[in-house]
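Example record

One chain of 271 residues, shown exactly as stored in the release files.
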Amino acid sequence: MKKSPWIIISLFLFIACEDEKAAEDEAPAPAIEYSNPKRATWTDGNAKASYEWSADGKSVNVIDPDTKELLVRREYNDYGYKTLQVEKYSWGQTDSSVMTYDIWKPLSENRYSHNGDGQYELQYTDVYEWNGLKVKVNNNTWGLLNEKEFDEAGREIFAKYYKFNGDPNYELTSEYDTNYQFRPLKVTRANYEDPSTLGSSYTLEETIWINKSATKTSYSDNGSGGLLGESFITVNEFDEWLTYIYKSNNVVQQSVTITYKSDRFKPYYTQ
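Predicted structure tokens for this chain:
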């Protein structure tokens, strides 16, 4: 019996649609583009800082706009992750950190301290050992510091911290609104009651978002549930802070305002 050409065409279209659906199911998730900002100003009450960027946009001097004193010098990689920080303290000490990255993943950090005769002495080295989106951070003096895990967008979702004797100390688990770039919702903590036993978890931070505003409630880290304070935050379209007000016992402890330059660092992508 000869098949109708319409049956053949319908069968062909059905198979083609199934192949297309299978290809969609097998296709990797689209890459997500992110970019880091460049600050212009920062204020917290009487404390102020202005950011004077180099012509290539990869280094900045952080200046007190009133005294013109250099506070911090920073250098960045192409994607806006810090590779050098030199800090000058009011009592005359100068410290510096040198960091290396694989785009957004830190690989190492060397911390130096000025010894008073024009030379810097190495204080410690942190090395980051990555396995996909999980990392172990080891210090050359204290050994294993922490283990962390990140999601596909580069947000920290889990961290386990260790004491200097190598025993586990506590764990943090973080939740986010994944419809946005960086909107934390909740952080829970669990302490190790002894080196082998993890105690029950409790809420450390909880954040409620309404449009581009957030209220973050912070609780005591000893598990008592005691209220530490509240933070009131506004963000821009990239979820970067514009204002931050922290209250404890209903008294304002911090009131920060941040502005940014219009140009940003080179975009990078996560899976």
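Notes: Residues 3-24 have pLDDT under 50 and may be disordered.
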